Amino acid sequence: MSTTPLAEPIAAPAPHERDTIAAAEVLVTSPDRNFVTLRITTGDGLVGLGDATLNGRELAVASYLRDHVVPLLVGRDAQRIEDTWQFLYRSAYWRRGPVTMAAIAAVDTALWDVKARRAGMPLYQLLGGASRGGLLAYGHASGRDVPELLDSVRRHLDEGFRAIRVQTSVPGVRTVYGVASQPTSTGGRYDYEPAQRALVPVEEDWDTRAYLRHVPGVFETVRNEFGPALPLLHDGHHRMRPIEAARLGKALEPYDLFWLEDCTPAENQEALRLVRQHTTTPLAIGEVFNTAWDYQTLLREQLIDYVRGSVTHTGGVTALRKIADQAAVYQIRTGFHGPTDISPVGMAAALHLGLALHNFGIQELMPHSPRTLEVFRTSSTFTGGYLHPGDEPGLGVTYDDEAAAAHPYEPAYLPYARLHDGTVHDW
Ligand code: CS2
Ligand code: MG
């Protein structure tokens, strides 16, 4: 009897000296809000940046990186992005979750930045090249009453936005997600920054029935004022039960929304079957998701129209690209999360990926403050309603240590909500 020779184990070649990860630093700064950044430096001094910001839980990710990931990175091959992703995901044994996946995202993004700088190309070129000239972006209009809201929409159109998210106050509810507390007339911006620099989460109130009574009328007014063509979006921010979400979707059909976002908490993916049976309003979900498995039923059963994940909270460019590719099988498009709690590094990564993907849909844009942009200098542009990541090698973002040092970490929590009888509700 002859024996078949078995393959000997084969190791990947040792990294070239210049590609070895020489240092990995975790940088925490608070230029108007907290950001956590990973900076990787290679043997020959190339630098890559990754965003690890998790709003309200920033230091958990900083510790995860500093205490458990950085010691594993030094000496590894910076070129092996997929292998590093799989190593960090699988060797932890305890998989998934926002902290773990934000940490992996930062490593992954920093390594893509390094690889693209090494290649001398903007990252989108490595991802397949541009599929379009620019990324349609939507801005955040809001108002404490209808005149203020219409004003806010106008201001966004003046700033160049060609798609607008509409959030409104609700009579009988004191504070509503997405509504800026200061009007422009007093110098305030409508861009909503919900995290409060407070030692405990601020309490807000909520009443779903009052909300459902009010919102369709507001959309009727906005549609009448701005005509049929302007893409209008709305964020339900996880507040409704499935049957309530179904009702709102149906009530908004005459106003032709681009999407209704987070109409119900989606941990229970099957709930979306009920919503879908009742409405043709397009649905967007996923900003709080962190892996492909969170989307499994939603994609396979075509229960949503837009994937809302971000590079920062979904395990990096590597993982989000796979989710987008899975979505493409079902003609589902992307609408990546882009609030200011994603740093300019995380945003740049989203822009490079969005430019390259065929099934890009729209990009959320909440402009960062001038102070934030002094720390993170970025090559991205916003013109004529479109974002573009620029053509510098890598992500096109540099980190200014001196500017960052002036803004130490400050504890900040997101608010939470209670119903009028005192019950804690989804915020
Ligand atoms: C939001 C976010 O942008 C959005 O759609 O839902 O503003 C969200 O509230 C924040 O990212 C929370 O940190
Ligand atoms: Mg949202």
List keywords for this structure.
binds D-mannonic acid, 427 residues, 34% helix, 3-stranded antiparallel β-sheet
Quick recap:
The chain has 13 helices and 18 strands.
Structural description of this entry:
The chain has 427 residues and is α/β, with parallel strands linked by helices. The chain contains 13 helices and 18 strands. It has helices at 58-73, 81-91, 98-119, 123-126, 146-158, 208-226, 242-252, 271-278, 296-300, 316-328, 344-356, 370-375, 401-405, and strands at residues 21-29, 35-42, 47-51, 135-143, 164-168, 203-206, 232-235, 259-261, 283-285, 306-307, 333-334, 363-364, 376-378, 381-383, 386-388, 397-399, 416-419, 424-425. The strands form four sheets. Strands 4, 5, 7, 8, 9, 10, 11, 12, 14 and 15 form a ten-stranded mixed sheet that branches. The longest helix is centred in the first third of the chain and has 22 residues, at 98-119. The protein is globular and about 75 Å long. Bound molecules: D-mannonic acid and magnesium ion. Residues 235, 237, 261-262, 287 line the site of magnesium ion.
